[in-house]
Each structure stands twice: as structure tokens, then as C-alpha cells.
Amino acid sequence: MSNSSAPSTSSASENAPVYGGAPAAPAKRTKIRTHHLQAMKAEGERWAMLTAYDYSTARLFDDAGIPVLLVGDSAANVVYGYDTTVPITIDELIPLVRGVVRGAPHALVVADLPFGSYEASAEQALATATRFMKEGLAHAVKLEGGERVAPQIAAITAAGIPVMAHIGFTPQSVNGLGGFRVQGRGDGAEQLVADAIAVQEAGAFSVVMEMVPAELAGQVTRKLTIPTVGIGAGVECDAQVLVWQDMAGYTSGRTAKFVKRFAAVGDELRGAAAAYADEVRAGTFPAAEHSF
Ligand SMILES: Nc1nc(=O)c2c([nH]1)NC[C@@H]1CN(c3ccc(C(=O)N[C@@H](CCC(=O)O)C(=O)O)cc3)CN21
Ligand SMILES: CC(C)C(=O)C(=O)O
Ligand SMILES: [Mg+2]
């Protein structure tokens, strides 16, 4: 459906450096829509979601073929430096969404609704989701909660906005959940299953399960018709998500147990900054070739 192929670069000079605005990838790749994710579940094809918070990283991840990018409220931690996701606001997130959407011509871009912007009522949730679509140009929104936010999910989807749900450990409720903890153990299993079914019935196109025992996450994945996206929820989910800085080794300090580092970007970048500064101090940069 409507695979509007990305326009090619219209740069005046072939050799001009590209600082922005250019398409991230060759044309012809499919623009990902929710029905593609549904089809992948039917085919048993796993997919990867990553967070992104700006244009430049969104381009790289779109080029890498990541089908879904999440502008997470984890921006609270990795962009703004807050301790939790509780303080981040709609106005701090929307500009990040705009950058990611411009950088990702193929990926489905999902925007996290921040704490305090949707819990009060279906009306509040729809108003917030609408801002992320109109001002952020997001393709879908995500919110935390199961049964308790089913009316919100129903109202947003009824307005034509796809919703990704998020159950299990929901970081915005860290204070109510008694810390960063695995959910769905023991008695919690029944509630987790009820939450999964509630969000599917309310119209969610997909659901994130965070820090849920692998076996339970597998059961839920088989029970649901919509794709599940795990983070600390085992390999039987239909998809996986990680915060990109965690995945790339660009987060400082201790990371959660579910994180695997696929690169050491932080070390690389620190090294580049130090090497640059050394050359400036030594007078070896800029050289003649960098001068006019
Ligand atoms: N960089 C980053 N990565 C994330 O995955 C992430 C964020 N930020 N910010 C928002 C939330 C917060 N998340 C978190 C934060 C801490 C733990 C954590 O400390 N987990 C313990 C759990 C111990 C247990 O219950 O067994 C761990 O060791 O994994 C988990 C998820 C996930 N999200
Ligand atoms: C970790 C993912 C699922 C998230 O909600 C976020 O990055 O905010
Ligand atoms: Mg989040």
C-alpha cells in the first residue's frame, strides 16, 4: 500500500556534503505499516525494534532495515539525564519525534506518551495522541498499562491512530511498582495475561512486554493474535526492543540484565573526541587539506 518511494537527493552539487534532508536509504523499500508486522507474526518472522531520538541515528537504523523505531520516553534518561521517565514532558518529546520521522522514510515510528499525559481519561489520552500525530508526525503511539488503560487505547484507535501497548514492568509506574522489578511472577501471571488480552481487545496493534518471565511471555505470545515485543521477556516474543544506547554500548554505568552490547560506541566516541582534541593542541589539525 502507498509505497511512496523516497525522492532522490536533489543536491545542486554532486560532491556537496549532506548535512540534512537527504533520504536515508535507496528508494523502493517498503514503508512499514502495522499490517506488515501482523503478517510477520503469521509467518513466524521475528523483527527488531530500536529506540531513536534524533534524525541522524534514525537514518542509520532505517538504513540497517530496522522496521520499527520507538521515540521512547527513555529519552528522559538517555537524552535529558533524568533518573526516571517520570519527569519528561510532551513538549520535550515532540521535537525528538519530528527529527526521527524525517530520518526514517521506511520505518514505522512509534511515539511514547509520557507519564501524566493519558492516565486521567480517554479524552486526555486522545488529545495527547493527536498532538504526537499532528505536531510530531508520528505513525503510532505507545502507552503503558493493561486493563486500566483499555478505554484510552479504544478511544485512540477509534480515532484512527495505531496504539502499541506496554505491559509487565512499566517504568512510569516505578514508584507504584516498588522499584525496577520483574513482573508476572506467581500471582502476577494472571494479571499479566488479563492485561495482554485487554489491550488486544481494546484495539492495540502490538504490545511490549517488559521484564516478564520468558515462559509466561511465550504463553502470552501464543495466545495473542497481535505481535508481542519483548524487553527482558525471552526469545519467544514475536519481536524484541532495546534502547539503542544500551544496544550499542553508549550507556554509562550498569545496565539491566536484559541488555546485550553489540558494539562499544561510547568508547569509540570518547576516543574520537580525545584524538581530535590532541590534534588541535598539537597543531596537526587542521592540516593543509582541511584549509582554504
Ligand atoms: N537506557 C535505558 N534502558 C532501558 O531499558 C530503559 C531506560 N533507559 N529508561 C526507561 C526504562 C527503565 N528501564 C529499566 C531500568 C532499570 C531496570 C533494572 O534495574 N532491572 C534490574 C531488575 C532486577 C530484577 O527485578 O531482577 C536488572 O538487573 O535487570 C530495568 C529496566 C527500561 N527502560
Ligand atoms: C524500552 C522501551 C520499550 C520504552 O518504552 C522506552 O524506551 O521508553
Ligand atoms: Mg517507554
Automatic annotation (TrEMBL):
Q: Which residues form the active site?
A: E210 (proton acceptor)
Region annotation (Disordered) ranges = 1-27
* Pathway entry: Cofactor biosynthesis; (R)-pantothenate biosynthesis; (R)-pantoate from 3-methyl-2-oxobutanoate: step 1/2
Question: Which residues bind Mg(2+) per the record?
Answer: D73, D112, E144
Cell location: Cytoplasm
Cofactor binding note from Swiss-Prot or TrEMBL: Binds 1 Mg(2+) ion per subunit.
Provide an example Pfam family for this protein: Pantoate_transf
Q: Where would one find coiled-coil regions in this protein?
A: none
Chief site of localization? cytoplasm
EC code? 2.1.2.11
Q: Where are the transmembrane segments?
A: none
Q: Which Gene3D superfamilies match?
A: Phosphoenolpyruvate-binding domains
Q: Which domain of life is it from?
A: Bacteria
What does the entry list as the binding residues for 3-methyl-2-oxobutanoate?
A: D73, S74, D112, K142
Q: Catalysed reaction(s)?
A: (6R)-5,10-methylene-5,6,7,8-tetrahydrofolate + 3-methyl-2-oxobutanoate + H2O = 2-dehydropantoate + (6S)-5,6,7,8-tetrahydrofolate
Among its keywords, does the record have Methyltransferase? Answer: no
Task: Recite the UniProt keywords alphabetically.
Answer: Cytoplasm, Magnesium, Metal-binding, Pantothenate biosynthesis, Transferase
Role: Catalyzes the reversible reaction in which hydroxymethyl group from 5,10-methylenetetrahydrofolate is transferred onto alpha-ketoisovalerate to form ketopantoate.
| Quaternary structure (record) | Homodecamer; pentamer of dimers.
The UniProt similarity line reads: Belongs to the PanB family.
Q: Which HAMAP family match?
A: PanB (MF_00156)
Name-wise, this protein is 3-methyl-2-oxobutanoate hydroxymethyltransferase
Q: Which organism is it from?
A: Rhodococcus olei
Q: What is the lineage of its organism?
A: Bacteria, Bacillati, Actinomycetota, Actinomycetes, Mycobacteriales
